[in-house]
Design goal:
about 500 residues, alpha/beta, six-stranded mixed β-sheet
Length: about 500
């Protein structure tokens, strides 16, 4: 059976661990780990866990779709009919969510999903955790699907261009796929190491896809002497955590002042630095890689760093961000920039002159959308929950002909070294931060973030149950600092949000 846990919802109540201990377990206080493909012997226990979960965070394959009541918003455009054809480009979390939402919103017409990978949609967060550590393999991270989704999957065939005039997507095979409504959900790919010859060395990897994870896992089980992780953000930290748990020596190189400081600020970054140290990670901040060296056979042997040192490594994993998969849209009239495809709040794609394209929608990591919480301009939200929320918004607007905006406060998380950091809002835009509960030293805290006197984000460190409260405060436009009885006087620490 196939399962997935929506960690944006999970609040670590642990009912699943009591009901199905062979499938779910905690690493540390709140870091939930689970087998995404348990045996059929566990089916009853997993179904019990899904039913008992207070926040309904467990998704199980085979659950039948039920049609929701129609949206109450007045149609602004022509709704979909049973004769219409919907094409989704991107066999991703966003693509699958959109297909599910189209069905639950009542659409009975044709849904075709195009994907460049040969795999059905799979869950990416386990790749840097369960897959690298061997708890699961890439085949078993497939996202659960409803039993009656009725989708035409066309996989392993890349979209190469879009003709919005004739409403056709051209595929690498030469085939053309007609649509009445189109969803662009092609996501992003890892930013490669910029020196082509060095990137081609045997032992240099990126981690974005199931195939990437499988290749790295194979190498980690082949007497690897030391792993170099380039980048100390979410992915880099999770890779380092996995290598540490396997007992593999690992060096993390990051140009910032502390791990994840760019997103969460120095105080949380220093807490993460201490975690790396406790788990014997060789962390080098304020440092970059100047060159990767190989032998005559083209195998990675060492890396030279900006501090003048050279370290011997046989595996290097490049975790320096991602770039949008938008090249196929060149000449289509769909507006894009270096960060993704531009859309409005209802997730209609925009034309080059800024007009909404009423038959083309965008969702997921590739979407560049308005974000009133973050301020003027267009923003990307490269997170699991954002992909789900945007896809649901786009699909419902597509079905009903509405312009309902996507307004969810983003929620995202990382699990490293047995610790869970879960965030709501946009901490990267803050100018001030405050510990409102607990202590970072004790690794049990809530940290709130403000900008111009307004609450814009909160990060819960092993305190996931508190995050919905702070999320509601962000949605309500609460003032910062919070004047609230939940603020712990003993945690009266105002922090710089300097990056």
């Amino acid at each position: 059976m196939e399962i997935a846990v929506d960690m944006t919802k999970c609040q670590s109540y642990a009912q699943c661990c009591f009901l199905a201990p062979g499938v779910f377990r905690f690493e540390g206080e709140e870091a939930l780990a689970y087998n995404p493909n348990p045996s059929d012997d566990e089916r009853f226990r997993v179904l019990q866990s899904a039913a008992a979960c207070p926040v309904q965070a467990i998704r199980v394959a085979g659950a039948r779709l039920s049609v929701r009541a129609a949206d109450t918003a007045e149609p602004m455009h022509a709704p979909l009919t049973a004769d219409d054809r919907v094409v989704i480009v991107g066999a991703s979390l966003a693509g699958l969510t959109a297909a599910e939402t189209l069905r639950t919103a009542g659409f009975t017409g044709t849904i075709t999903v195009l994907g460049d990978e040969p795999h059905l949609p799979y869950d990416r967060p386990p790749l840097s955790k369960q897959v690298l550590t061997g708890v699961a393999d890439t085949i078993t991270t497939r996202l659960p699907q409803p039993a009656n989704l009725d989708v035409d999957w066309r996989l392993g065939n890349t979209a190469t261009s879009l003709d919005t005039g004739s409403k056709q997507v051209l595929l690498q095979s030469g085939a053309r796929v007609d649509y009445d409504r189109l969803l662009i959900a092609t996501g992003r790919r890892s930013r490669p190491w910029p020196v082509t010859a060095e990137a081609a060395l045997d032992g240099v990897f990126v981690l974005r896809t199931a195939d990437d994870a499988a290749a790295i896992r194979e190498r980690l089980t082949s007497n690897t002497s030391r792993v170099l992780v380039i980048g100390g953000g979410f992915t880099g930290g999770e890779i380092a955590s996995s290598c540490s748990s396997l007992g593999i020596p690992v060096t993390v190189v990051d140009r910032g002042p502390a791990p994840m400081a760019k997103l969460f600020g120095i105080a949380i970054g220093e807490m993460m630095r201490e975690l790396h140290r406790e788990h014997d990670v060789d962390l080098r901040t304020g440092t970059g890689v100047t060159a990767m060296l190989g032998d005559d056979a083209g195998r990675l042997t060492a890396a030279q760093l900006t501090d003048g040192s050279t370290i011997d490594v046989d595996v290097a994993i490049v975790a320096i961000g991602a770039v949008p998969n938008s090249e196929w849209l060149a000449g289509s009239g769909v507006a894009s920039d270096d960060e993704g495809v531009l859309c409005d709040a209802a997730h209609h794609a925009l034309s080059a002159d800024g007009r909404p394209l009423l038959d083309v929608f965008v969702a997921g990591d590739i979407a560049r959308h308005p974000n009133p919480l973050a301020g003027p301009g267009m923003w990307t939200s490269e997170h699991w929950g954002a992909a789900v929320g945007q896809a649901e918004t786009a699909a419902r607007n597509m079905v009903h002909g509405t312009d309902t905006p996507h307004q969810d406060v983003p929620v995202f998380w990382t699990t490293q070294f047995g610790q869970v950091l879960k965030a709501a809002g946009e901490p990267a835009i803050a100018d001030t931060a405050q510990i409102t509960q607990g202590s970072l030293g004790a690794r049990s805290a809530a940290v709130t973030f403000g900008r111009d006197g307004r609450l814009v984000a909160a990060v819960a460190v092993n305190q996931s149950k508190w995050l919905p409260y702070y999320q509601a405060q962000i949605e309500a436009g609460a003032a910062f600092p919070l004047d609230d009885p939940t603020v712990d006087p003993a945690a009266d620490t105002t922090l710089s949000a300097a990056r």
